[in-house]
Design the sequence.
């Protein structure tokens, strides 16, 4: 038995070393598949939307191709990001806690995304749409009229990832969105009317938090 195991390890090593074009193809193919089908570690075992990384510039940004996905959303207008976020979060949390046509609880997913359409000035209201990712094909209908299901077609996003836990304020998000804008600097075209924040951790997690800002390609 042991001999057999050792032999197969040797065989595997030899095969990999010889790296025939076919094998290289298979390896590359499974790598692509992994990126598409295996949830990234920062989802922490929660269901999260599928994407493929098309390009990655370390420390700067990533280009991702997201598959079509379903979300449950709600929006509110306001000057204060934290206040709008609390209102929106409560509505969506109620939806997954049973305020839906099936009266059923739904598992929390990741990330919590917020589409921000900035107001025309600092004292003007912005439009905040918060969404939770939905796994099921036929999710129950929200019973709160302010909550709605939304299908996203596949989309391409320019993504900047960063840590930090003081995410109740809009400031760190704005700072990272500025950086992303600079890194993309004229190379890519994306919609400048809005951007997304994506949070992957509960507010109680302090270390190794994962946050992202997204610009959507046009
Ligand atoms: C926010 O923008 C969405 C479009 O993204 C729109 O449907 C909605 O009515 C707006 N909500 C508010 C409160 O302005
Ligand atoms: C991009 O960066 C270069 C140099 O860093 C600058 O000259 C150029 O104006 C920038 N382009 C845009 C569109 O911001």
Sequence:
């Amino acid at each position: 038995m042991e001999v057999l195991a050792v032999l197969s390890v040797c065989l595997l090593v030899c095969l990999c070393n010889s790296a025939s074009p076919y094998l290289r193809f298979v390896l590359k193919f499974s790598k692509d598949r992994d990126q598409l089908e295996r949830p990234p570690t920062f989802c922490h075992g929660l269901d999260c939307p599928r994407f493929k990384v098309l390009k990655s510039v370390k420390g700067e940004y990533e280009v991702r191709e997201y598959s079509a996905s379903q979300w449950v959303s709600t929006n509110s207008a306001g000057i204060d990001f934290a206040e709008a976020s609390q209102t929106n979060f409560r509505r969506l949390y109620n939806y997954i806690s049973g305020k839906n046509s099936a009266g059923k609880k739904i598992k929390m997913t990741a990330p919590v995304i917020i589409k921000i359409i900035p107001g025309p000035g600092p004292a003007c209201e912005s439009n905040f749409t918060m969404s939770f990712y939905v796994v099921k094909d036929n999710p129950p209908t929200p019973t709160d009229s302010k909550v709605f299901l939304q299908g996203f077609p596949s989309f391409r996003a320019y993504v900047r990832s960063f840590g930090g836990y003081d995410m109740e304020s809009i400031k760190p998000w704005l700072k990272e969105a500025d950086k992303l804008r600079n890194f993309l600097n004229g190379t890519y075209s994306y919609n400048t009317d809005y951007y997304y924040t994506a949070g992957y951790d509960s507010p109680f997690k302090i270390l190794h938090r994962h946050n992202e800002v997204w610009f959507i390609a046009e």
Notes: The helical segments are 2-18, 21-37, 81-96, 171-184.
